[in-house]
Give the backbone structure.
Amino acid sequence: MKRVPESEAIAEPVDASRFNEVMGSNRFRQADYRRLAHRAVDMGIPPGGKVLDMGTGPGFVAIEVARLLRGTGYQVVGMDLSAAMLALAAENAAKAGLNGVLSWREGDVKAMPFDDGEFDLIVSNDSLHHWDDPLPVFDEIARVLKDDGRCIVHDSKRLQHWWPWLFVKTISLTVPRGFRVHWWNSIRSSYTADELRAILGRSRLADRGRFYGVDGCEVDMPRLVKGAKWTFGWAVVGPEREIAIPPEAWDEYGFQAGDEAIFTPGSRKSGGFGISTSVLMTEASGKMGGTNLHELGRSRFGDGWVVVPPEVGAKSGDRLLAVRGSCYGLGFVVRGPIYEEALKHPELEVFA
Ligand SMILES: C[S@@+](CC[C@H](N)C(=O)[O-])C[C@H]1O[C@@H](n2cnc3c(N)ncnc32)[C@H](O)[C@@H]1O
């Protein structure tokens, strides 16, 4: 399906108000905003860091980010081309009692009114499909983001077949009848993952040697293969079969030194194994109707590392790719498409 572009700014006050009203009162959308804010903040920001929400509209994501960072000295800026949207964003922030943490700035994502390297984290939701040409925007992100900054640009993707439309039409029942057409137009004007991948490859984000994955229409890092798992980096098995756990994964899965590490088998396609804990296993068992995950062996976590029990079959010197396997355990894969793709990315971190 060919892309049918929409206008860039939602500039008319009446359109901005309608958007604010519909999205502000839709609990599914609000849950999406909260989820995205959590994901963005979980990517990590240094203390007192600065966050930008590009194409902030009525400020929903910026507000959720500010809620998470409240009282910690962070600054959150919401930027939009539409003055009408920014006025609503300021009202929403005042209602949420967050005006001190948040500020609003009128500007175009193609030429942002910010200094080089000003931001530690950039987030954007549902704005990308309005951008006539994402290339200069990606270049601008590369400019205003710190070298070790993080970015997540989230949007819908254009559908290529008729059958996902049935799903979209069903979901759209949660949106008021008169507003549904805007939603469908957004999907028609969205980019496909392949289009975005090509544009990213030509942008300054690629020049900086960063790797940005594209899935659906989310531009993020580091997801290596379309539809694949998130990648933390490499772990090399040490002489005593010890492996370092990437710190991000350590925090995400709530591992603690001294706790028992439970090893589970990897998938047939990717091999390797998963590392879980009794807490995560209990949750998994609940969600799987009481079925227990198969166990290969157990050991105890050290401080940021764990020894792989002999039954698991890992050998000293093995290179394992650490991936976000599932919410039940951290995955370490040894083959398959994601592993092959990872071999082509020297920028992936090695944890040892
Ligand atoms: C569909 S709304 C999404 C708003 C908000 N991010 C959300 O998730 O609720 C898209 C927003 O992107 C803004 N926008 C579109 N093109 C822009 C550009 N070139 N520069 C800045 N903002 C832009 C529009 O004005 C609009 O507020």
Observations:
- The chain has a mean pLDDT of 84.
